[in-house]
Design a protein that fits this description.
The chain is mostly beta strands and 188 residues long. It has strands at residues 2-3, 12-15, 18-28, 36-43, 49-55, 59-62, 65-75, 80-84, 90-93, 109-115, 121-125, 129-137, 150-155, 160-164, 172-176, 181-186. A hairpin with a 2-residue loop joins strand 2 (12-15) and strand 3 (18-28).
Amino acid sequence: MASTSDIRNGLCIHYNHDIFKIIEFLHVKPGKGPAFVRTKLKSVTTGKVIDNTFSAGHKIDEVRVETHKFQFLYNDGEGYHFMNTEDYSQMALQESALDRPDLMKEGEVVTILINSEDGAPLSVDMPASVILEVTSTEPGVKGNTATNATKPATVETGAKVNVPLFINEGDKIKVDTEKGTYKERVKE
């Protein structure tokens, strides 16, 4: 058993007869009344996200997990297929287990959390950022840079990302996987 002081992003817990992963949390200590922890929980079975508030000191039932590095192989429409980088075993996961499947390209190495009790995969953690090539975008209009102007661009995985006006087709960009936003252009 853990308590609310052990809450962190990525922690998997038993809650309401299901397993949830904490994707966001905030410790709140109001001027009046007891402290509490506001959380966003994502179900690892359905992918549904719920908001929940735990009072300070509340006991939570933590799920013991193992982390393994897997390489993304392909998506066949029925599931996403991964290969363990250590023993080369393969596993297929549903799209609900992934946070940002639209930013994952073939060959990407991810971390998969596996329940130690029954060996079931719980969730997929992507690297903090990925480098993707821009496949299509409109050319930027010269003189339209008075503000922090952006334009939509499609990257090689099919995801849409807003990028600055100086980004062109064929450029490689670094994308934040948590928010799905542009970080910087990558020079080769």
